[in-house]
Amino acid sequence: MARMRLARLVPLALGLALVLPIQAAHGAGERERQTVFNGVVFDGEGYRGQFYPGNEQTIHLLADAPNVLVPKVTDVYWWPITREYKADWESTNESLTGTLEVGDLTFPMTVYSMRYDGSYAAAATELLTSESAVRAHVENQQARDDYQLALGRYHQDLEEFDASLEAWGDEIDRRRAEGLATDDLPAPEQPSPPAQITVTVTEPQPGIAFSLPAGEYAMRLRAPDGSIVPGSERTLVAFGPRREGVAYKVIAASRYTLPDASTDPNDIIFVSGEAALYIQPAAQREYDAFYAAKLLHSQQQSVQNRRGVWSWLPAGELPASTLSLSANGGPPQPVEADVYYAKQRPGAALGYEIVPYDESAGQGVSTFRAFEVRPQAGVMTVSASGVAGSTREIRTVDTDMGTALLLLAFAPLAAGLFWMSYRRWRTR
Amino acid sequence: MVGADARLRAGSAWRLARRELMGAVRSPSLYVMVTLGCLVAAVIVSSYLDYVADSGTVVLANPLRAPLLFALLATTAYVGLLSTAGLAGERERGTLEVLFYGPVDTTSYIVGKLLGHALTYLLAALAVVAFLALTAWLTGMPLSLKELVLVAASTVPAMSMIALGLALGALAGRIRPALALAALVIAVFIAIDVGSEIAVAQPSDTLLGSAAGLLASLAAAIVWVSPMGYLFWAEDALAVGTVGDVLIAVGAASAYGLALTRMAIAALRWRGVQRWRE
Question: Mean pLDDT, to the nearest integer, of A46-62?
Fold first, then answer.
């Protein structure tokens, strides 16, 4: 009885084991002092930080793009919850200096800064190194100081304006009381606030900046005394794109918070019952899937190390203000981009309408810039003129055909049975 | 004399091929096979349509490629088993020996069988393509030129599978062990090739994903001997749009099929055409 029960459980256990993640055999919490690298790496759009512990012997970077590695010594421990190695910067955070040897090339220690406009978003960051980093930071600091001074002056002007406005109001009241004209009394001019500083340039930090052509390199850090820093040896893989293309975010009017994405140039956008689609194009590049995953997260463990598997990464905005749209083989028509927002329907019932944005919508409304396409029966084609990989078909499908197809699938069997029955009847 | 001999052989092979084709057309198994391919296609497309009906949009590349590939794989396996069963069955029943008293030799027999089963495969594949074309017309989901090229290219791996089936049928003494052997070989090929395709999509830190490396190694090892491997090779090349790779896959499959055909001929000569006796 027990043997039968076990026999039933074994396949179930094997099946579960196939899909459950493998737990790495690491001791959580054990610390090891290591030479590590912090990376400021270009991901195709902007820059992101990466951590390369000693356990990650290979560093993956985009070729022909400036990157920064910052060598340090710290205590590294395994964090089982996120299944990655972490640095205990609080206990040990020792900066290293030296020259980075990458293949036959050498790169000295320098300084670097990050420049971004608005809030920090990896897609909008720019890397500055050496003299330009120092200069940009100084200029940014000066601009901020100037802004603070201008802001102070503005507040003073505002106080004076408030006072003069009050006095002007009193004078108006007095003249009206006396029946005198007030047209010749000019209103005080409101001061304008100084333009806000939106650009931030971080304080220059020490790091090793470099750009490499595609290839695989042996990397190590040579200390000022000429010795190789222990634990600094790594393999560095610089990889480039296989091809470039255009990705589209497709926003259906009825489900604007749940967009679809099209990255494959062979993609077709199938639509049914939608009054409008809002399309947002963006540039993209195709890379080796394993390398790309390791670029975005150096300790990525889910991706398989296989060649011949590809994935697309964003490559910034597509500088196209016009898309070309044709329907059922007709001449292409230009489609201009516009700014839209979801206008909520009044009342308690849920509902909205996507409409072009104008100032009557008020401030603080969430808007998006897109190209509006109204689906028609048949085949439409949208593309960005002269941009390879930008063409997509938009097809309207008949969603009521499912049952008919299932029935039609039995037609070959029915035809065969009829044919054999007929032959049998004929030969009787 | 040589020319007359060749004409006689060609005529025998053609008659055998016609006999195979007519036999398949009169058998219910062919219609079941085609219906299975159409049914899987209908289920897949129906699920796409349901999704579009719920969501308003769906983004897909080559929506009819997956059901077509399933149908081609299933039909390839079917004609492989059919060829094994045909040869081993004829020998077991004694009809093979009788056939060779006529103007039939080993080469014309194998070539005739190969041609007949290839026509059966083509018939089944075209029936599925017709269904997919009807699906495209009814639903708006297109059947592209690449799919038609895939069907054309798939005939070569299918003929390799037929030749392999004939070789296994020629080597085995009786129909049951021949079918068992052919089914085992086909199952192993499908398991490795299809399993490798599935495992590569899994996260590598799961057991199935970690087996992807092993499956990929096995797939690489059998890529030159698995007809399914050639089909996937052609399909991958078509997906990327590299015509050269498609031609290479077809060329390699042709060479492999030719080698298997010669092996089937040699196996039949070695084993003989007489009914196997205890």
Answer: 94
Longest C-alpha distance within chain A, in Å? 125
pLDDT (0 to 100) of residue B212: 74
Query: CB distance A423–B26 less than 8 Å?
Result: yes
- CB of B212 less than 8 A from some CB of A: yes
Q: Where does residue A43 rank: exposed (0-12), middle (13-18), buried (19+ CB within 10 A)?
A: buried
- pLDDT, residue B271, reads 87
Is there a contact between B142 and A268 if contact means CB atoms under 8 Å apart? yes
The pTM of the full predicted model, rounded to 2 decimals, is 0.79
Model confidence pLDDT, tens digit, residues A57-93: 999 999 999 999 999 999 999 999 988 999 999 999 9
B38 near A CB under 8 A: yes
pLDDT of residue B146: 87
Provide the residue ranges of all domains of chain A, joining segments of one domain with +.
1-30, 34-240, 243-283+312-397, 400-428
Rounded Cα distance, B17 and B10, in Å: 10
Contact B68, B132 (CB under 8 A): yes
What count of Cα atoms within 13 Å lies in the side-chain half-sphere of residue B50? 9
Q: Which is it for strands A367-373 and A333-344: parallel, antiparallel or unpaired?
A: antiparallel
Residue of chain B minimizing CA distance to A263: B59
Distance CA A243, CA A361 (A): 41
Q: What is the dihedral of CA B204, B206, B207, B211, to 10 degrees?
A: -10
| B217-234 pLDDT per residue, tens | 888 788 888 888 888 888
Other C-beta atoms closer than 10 Å to the C-beta of B265 total 21
Is A162 in a helix, a strand, or coil? Answer: helix
**pLDDT tens figures, B11-58:** 889 999 999 999 999 999 999 999 999 999 999 999 999 999 998 899
ipTM here: 0.86
CA distance B141 to chain A (A): 7
How many Cα atoms sit within 13 Å of A146 on the Cβ side? 10
- Return the pLDDT at A123: 61
State the smallest CA–CA distance between residue A219 and chain B in angstroms.
27
Cβ neighbours of residue B244 closer than 8 Å, sequence gap 6 or more:
B237
